[in-house]
Amino acid sequence: MDLQAQRRTLGDRLTRRIEAVLEHGGFIMGPEVAELENRLADFVGVRHAVTCSSGTDALLMALMAFGIGIDDAVFTTPFTFIATAEVIALLGATPVFVDVNSETFNMDPAQLERAVHALKFKDVSAYPLPLGAKRKDLRPRGVIPVDLFGLAADYEALNRVAQDHGLFVLEDAAQSFGAVYQNGKKCCALAEIAATSFFPAKPLGCYGDGGAVFTDNDNVAETICSIRIHGKGADKYDNVRIGLNGRLDTLQAAILLEKLEIFPQELERRQEIAERYTERLKDVVQTPRIPEGYRSAWAQYTIVSDQRFEIQKALQNRGIPSAVYYPKPLHLQGAFEFLGYKKGDFPVSERLSESVLSLPMHPYLQDDQVDSISETVCSVFH
Ligand SMILES: *Cc1c(COP(=O)(O)O)cnc(C)c1O
């Protein structure tokens, strides 16, 4: 993200918003926080948006609201940022991985069905399961699909599988704020609860850490508001449950309110840039496939190629940054060694981790920059 170019576009309005907070001094839960929450809920089209300290805490608080703990299994993908599965383990629950689709990079609903079935019947030959899967008291409770690189997962199918098995669905929309699903619904509104992140490099980012939880459920929203402030009841010194210090700073809320103003135009520009890349690259590498009717938020523009190393080198030689998200799938990370997964368990995620490459993607790229990046990629192939 070119934060300096964005800063120039925002101009003095942003400075004035920040100064207003410095003047009124309500740094914790000041009026900008509620203002932002109303704007976010309207933008997404859900009843409640509860802002918080990060995308990780948004996921954590959502799981806490569902009472997730040691006897619970939660399904997610191994091809995501560590935070998605980390919060499951942090609560003492067991992450159960489900492989992704090779074109959308998102959780494969058919494999979710197989994994849930295997876990329910303690059948470790039916799908790769973590150590401890045979424990009698381990119950499947929920699913965290991830909208990777800004593209919604297939919620119609995922929600159906979850419903059949009595599981909740928590949408990890950390990368997909602003994206649209096939039915016209926005990301963050595609499951019974959703979490997003306002980390500076996400589609809508602040100038520090931030996040939000979205839900239509009044009781869940109330529980999350309580968890966010040390499990508060009637007031801050009435504590009815174990919670955290999970608030969003007022200053960050003020910054996000201004950034939200220009966000729709930024999304349009990301879409134009993605189309320009695809036009130029589709014959040499696997370009992102956006299913009919979907719109990505283009958190990343990610290509797949066996020549990844050569492409990366060529870009580097011309001073063009690129990045690999993610070089190691979660089931092979040291942090999750205790789950006992092994190489070969999730072949699509493993292959992608060896062949994906994310190119520069933000709304302030110029057409000629996109062209020269594309030419550099193509140069590897002749
Ligand atoms: C960034 C990210 C998170 C965590 O968000 P933070 O605000 O950095 O805590 C969680 N899940 C995914 C998929 C992410 O990309």
| Shape verdict | globular
**Number of H- or I-type helical stretches:** 11
The helix/strand order is: HHEHEHEHEHEEEHHEHHEH
**Percent of residues in beta strands:** 5-15%
Distance between the termini: 30 Å
User: Main β-sheet: number of strands, strand sense, barrel status?
Assistant: 7 strands, mixed
Average the pLDDT over all residues and give the rounded result: 97
**How many E strands?**
9
Low-confidence stretches: none
Structural class: alpha/beta
Please give the order of strands in the largest beta sheet: 1-7-6-5-4-2-3
Helix content: 25-40%
Taking Cα atoms only, what radius of gyration do you get, to the nearest Å?
Answer: 21 Å
| Hetero compounds | pyridoxal-5'-phosphate
Summarize the model shown.
40% of the residues lie in helices and 11% in strands. The chain contains 11 helices and 9 strands. Bound molecules: pyridoxal-5'-phosphate.
Protein described:
This protein is α/β, with parallel strands linked by helices and 382 residues long. The protein is 40% helix and 11% strand. It contains eleven helices and nine strands. The strands form two sheets. It has a seven-stranded mixed sheet with strand order 1-7-6-5-4-2-3, sandwiched between helices. It has a two-stranded antiparallel ribbon with strand order 8-9. α6 links the parallel β4 and β5. α3 crosses α7 and α8 packs across α11. The longest helix is centred in the last third of the chain and has 32 residues. It is globular. It starts with a helix and ends with a helix. The mean pLDDT is 97. The structure holds pyridoxal-5'-phosphate (PLP).
